[in-house]
Amino acid sequence: MNDVDPLGSAKQGQSAVRALDLLFLIAQTEKPIGMAEAAQALNLPRSTVYRLAQILVDYGVVVRLPEGLLPAPRLFLFTSGNRAAASMEATLEPHLNRCRDLTRDTAGLHVRVGWYRRTIAEIEGFHGIRWTRGVGYTAPLWNGAVGYVLSLALSDDELDQMLDQADLTPLASNTPKTPAQVRERIAETRSQGWCYSEGESVDGAAAIAAPVTAGGKIVASLSVYAPVSRGRELTAFGEELAEVAKEASQTWQHFATRADTRDSGSQTWSNIETDLLADET
């Protein structure tokens, strides 16, 4: 018979429950939640929430932004029942390479996190003068080509809620200043099937973007971005980018269909439990 430490088991169970409570709280929010707000909601010391949040961040299921905590793209991919699905960037890398090769400019892959968009993969362009964002780059959904593409996944109620909460303080010279302007840009994107923007998120930058879908839902966006001096040249590749995005959608759908749905990432949670217990000792 194995010896069991009741105290250790109790601590581990308490830590796991607290971490799950925090994770569920973060997952239910459409905007970043601060440490103080989370501590108050869970009736826990802020120091405890900070330690639990750091563990969740380290394991890639939570993202820490300056404004607070958000669920990470990896968390949503785990819910599909396939831990390997977390490597969307690896699965779609050939399509990213094709985007870069077509335009010779930087290609990126982005997903929605609440009311934000996050870059999860990027391949730099060939030009000596080029624009890059970097993996982990995060910006609002309500501006820029990538934001409009990912906003197509929102229901009417979700779009209303996002725009009610949106801070439309201009980030750049062409940032939309009213909810009506954002709605117009999203409608244009839906009609065209892809989007072009310049100077909306950052002055001096231009981008084209198109949706990646799975099961009829938008799950990501492929994009190409460049200095605004080459921005208009990007529009010539808009239709081609949309076609590459359709091919990427087929690849991702095929990957998801073949995935072993019984592999729910239990090993990852086991590792988290180990760290939680160590944190309590």
From TrEMBL:
Protein species of origin: Rhodococcus jostii
Lineage: Bacteria, Bacillati, Actinomycetota, Actinomycetes, Mycobacteriales
Domain HTH iclR-type per the UniProt entry, residue ranges: 13-69
Positions of region (Disordered): 259-281
IclR-ED domain sequence ranges: 74-254
Coiled coil: none
Protein name: DNA-binding transcriptional regulator, IclR family
Pfam families: HTH_IclR, IclR_C
Keywords on record: DNA-binding, Transcription, Transcription regulation
Listed GO MF terms: DNA binding; DNA-binding transcription factor activity
One of the protein's GO biological processes: negative regulation of DNA-templated transcription
Keyword S-adenosyl-L-methionine: no
Biased composition regions of type Polar residues, renumbered to the chain: 264-273
